[in-house]
Inverse folding.
């Protein structure tokens, strides 16, 4: 798969995630894909289990893609994931074999107040 094809597949994946289109969202995964959430210590094996776990999530959620970077078999998506109007900053690292994701690791970071010691050097982000 060419890099442009992977980038397009990732855009479709995140758009489907944002629309709660669980079938389209999970087409990108191989049947035996593995998803890991290091901060909660969870590992989910298999596309259908990954899909079921996300469909069972009760919160209203939205995905905003900040950027997609990568090449070959390794891709990173930087996102803002909003659960019930509270944003979390997410990095998703996806490993591909051929045209499918075989492993994904997602890291979450909650927003925090700016540090006053660096105020003179910073500007607010939108």
């Amino acid at each position: 798969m060419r890099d442009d094809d992977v980038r397009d597949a990732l855009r479709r994946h995140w758009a489907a995630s944002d629309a709660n289109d669980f079938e389209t969202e999970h087409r990108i995964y191989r049947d035996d894909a593995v998803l890991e959430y290091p901060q909660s210590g969870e590992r989910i094996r298999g596309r259908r289990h990954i899909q079921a776990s996300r469909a069972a999530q009760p919160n209203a959620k939205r995905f905003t893609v900040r950027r997609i970077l990568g090449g070959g078999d390794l891709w990173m998506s930087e996102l803002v994931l909003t659960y019930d109007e509270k944003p979390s900053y997410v990095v998703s690292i996806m490993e591909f074999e051929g045209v499918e994701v075989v492993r994904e690791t997602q890291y979450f970071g909650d927003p925090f107040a700016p540090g006053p010691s660096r105020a003179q050097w910073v500007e607010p982000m939108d």
Notes: The first helix runs from residue 3 to 18. The chain has one domain: 3-111.
